[in-house]
Design brief:
By secondary structure, the protein is of the alpha/beta class. The chain is built from 12 helices and 11 strands. The protein is globular, with a radius of gyration of 24 Å. About 25% of the residues are buried.
Length: about 350
């Protein structure tokens, strides 16, 4: 809290972070309040599978405005495809109840959806399921992992790049089809982040940045690593018992880690969408040995941008125009404080202010 700026963000992940117990998080919030600087704003995000969420948990998370990322892949046949209890029974019923408890308590809930070889076939069903349940914030996470039984290929539950590309296209059309008055009614993190780049702003999603390394990960024993996908000895930066987080975040090793993303495959340098994805997440270059160092979802991104580019450019133009109009209106409101009703209107129309922009 002392090393951070005016806005500090904590992302509580695991494993399963709720296994630390509710009292742990009560103490965390107490410490945030105790050690925060005047005017400092704190954000807390909690990523959970929802298994222990009850009324008490939900009230705490709502009262302290935690953003809860709930791992719920969609309807029962989709979620239960891979999310089983040790008994073999699916977990959908329990997790969907946790969702309802959280929403009824007024908690901010984001649906975390893993896109695997099965769920990738059901974009519309997943989207509409969450919308109907009141989950208007969604994050889709494509899965690619090495096969533990055959290290020459990705695990069979991984999603193919071409399939994920079609999934993104279908999802994008559903998302834009639900716009009201030119505004989205659903937040889909990837689309929101991509839109930032279309209006010349820095995307909030690290996978779309030119370099990595904008945050660090603190493990249970205080060890600090470069990224939650690279908790490996090579990328251990230090320990919070001995080191300052700000020093570790700006250390030579963390800077070295950040530059890894810029070491892109040759095909990236001639791709017309390079300035939109910057090669994607480095972890996705490692999940399937058959990709030979290329991003597993390169084809997916190319398919998506080819389909969505014109619409995104149009939305960006509308956004810039709205921003310009708001700035002009703000300036005119300021001018109106010193302009008489019979004075020429500052917009340049040639009419009196009371007959132009000053009309009530």
């Amino acid at each position: 809290m002392q090393q951070g700026g005016q806005q500090v963000s904590f992302g509580w992940q695991g494993g399963e972070p709720t296994l630390m117990g509710l009292d742990f998080f009560r103490r965390a919030v107490d410490y945030q309040q105790q050690y925060g600087k005047r005017g400092q704003v704190v954000g807390n995000g909690l990523q959970t599978n929802g298994l222990v969420i009850d009324q008490e948990w939900a009230k705490f998370l709502a009262d302290h405005q935690f953003l809860v990322g709930l791992s719920l892949d969609g309807p029962q046949h989709i979620h239960d495809k891979y999310r089983h209890f040790p008994s073999g029974k699916g977990s959908w019923e329990k997790i969907s109840r946790a969702r309802d408890i959280l929403l009824n308590a007024g908690a901010q809930v984001n649906a975390l959806i893993v896109v695997n070889d099965y769920s990738v076939l059901h974009a519309q069903e997943i989207y509409q399921y969450h919308k109907k349940a009141g989950m208007n914030f969604m994050q889709f996470i494509p899965c690619v992992e090495k096969d533990p039984h055959n290290t020459e290929q990705a695990a069979p539950f991984s999603v193919a790049g071409s399939d994920y590309g079609k999934f993104l296209i279908d999802l994008f059309d559903l998302w834009t089809g639900d716009f009201r008055n030119g505004q989205p009614t659903t937040s889909i993190r990837f689309f929101d982040s991509v839109f930032y780049s279309y209006v010349g702003m820095t995307p909030p999603e690290c996978t779309l940045l030119q370099e990595c390394g904008i945050y660090v990960v603190v493990e249970h024993n205080g060890d600090v690593y470069s990224c939650d996908f690279f908790v490996e000895p090579e990328w251990r930066l230090g320990n919070v018992e001995q080191d300052k987080l700000s020093d570790l975040l700006n250390s030579p090793k963390q800077n070295e880690f950040g530059r890894i993303k810029a070491q892109r495959p040759a095909e990236c340098e001639t791709c017309k969408w390079l300035d939109k994805c910057w090669g994607g997440c480095p972890k996705d270059r490692q999940g399937d040995p058959r990709d030979r160092g290329s991003n597993h979802f390169c084809q997916a991104f190319q398919m998506f941008f080819e389909h969505a580019n014109s619409k995104l450019e149009s939305l960006a133009a509308e956004w810039r125009n709205a921003q310009s109009n708001q700035r002009q209106k703000a300036r005119m409101n300021d001018d109106a404080q010193i302009i008489g009703r019979n004075d020429p209107c500052p917009c340049g129309s040639g009419r009196k202010y009371k007959k132009c922009c000053g009309q009530e």
